[in-house]
Amino acid sequence: MVRPFFSLVVAALTVGLACGSGSVKKEPDGIPDRTGGEGGGAGGAAGAVPDAGVTGRDATGGTGGRGGSGGSTPRDAGPQPDAGPLIGLDCNSAKFCDDFESYTAGARPAGGWTVTGSVVVDSGKAFSGTKSILIKGPGPRTNGAISRGRGVLPFATNTIYGRMMVWLTAAPAGSVHWDSIWAIGKLPATTVTAHYRYGGGFQKFLAVYGTTATPNPDCSRGSQTRFPTQRWACLQWQFDGSPDGAGGTKNEARLWMDGNPISDATVVRFGSGCISGPRTTEWKAPVFDTFQVGWRNYQDSTTPIEMWIDDVAFDEKPVSCPAVP
Hints:
By secondary structure, this protein is mainly beta. It has strands at residues 8-9, 59-60, 96-98, 114-117, 120-122, 132-137, 143-148, 159-168, 177-186, 193-201, 204-211, 219-226, 233-240, 252-257, 260-261, 267-268, 273-274, 287-297, 305-315. The chain has no helices and 19 strands. The model is unreliable at 1-81 (pLDDT under 50).
């Protein structure tokens, strides 16, 4: 049962988702584009990969590049997640949850999901039940995501808490950057699309912000926590565009793994640097109308990608992790 109430590889990163079918439909959303490339300090770019959705750029930048030196600015400091596990709703109580059990193995997930790229329902590995979704590609680039939007979002609070169970066989080495979690929408009173994302680079977690403005600021904050591989892990996140009480929005993003905060992936208004904007470019939140999970890497990778996702949930309130073996 589905409950339908739902660039850059960081210059700052120097070494650092039980329920089944539904009917919510929405217009297709592409995965945000970016231009990938290998570069030195200037964050060189090459080889744009077009999509139907958000556009932007991704680049690799070394110390002293356009994204900055990798250190934090004073404005990076801000409220951090609580030190204890993130406890909230059970998946069955969330506004949306899906364990993919009612879908046909070997087919694209149904039930109202918009599917982009290489995504199939798989019965070879699951966290709960017998099915999950699988995103698989031999490289050099892998692209697969599922999204929900119209009829579920936006939430009145403009805050999205999400959760998924994920198994990644291996993370790409080196400067290859990928995204796995997206929240997308228009900036208030504009035609500009903005997106908050979590993924990885240098095999570690990475927060990214971009827009369709010209230039796209392409901002990020890198973590020293490694993206989990060879096991089921519970990822939880919060994208907060709720009112800040002063006429603006909070503009915050947070990430947890197995219930525990990844504090150095927290963003409070500002990250650690931007490719095409000032280091102090604010991560202004859009009205979140699309929620998306999956995989896309932006530079060529020699690492074959296998990512299974199970038990996807989201709500305006935190959704708890299940017990992880």
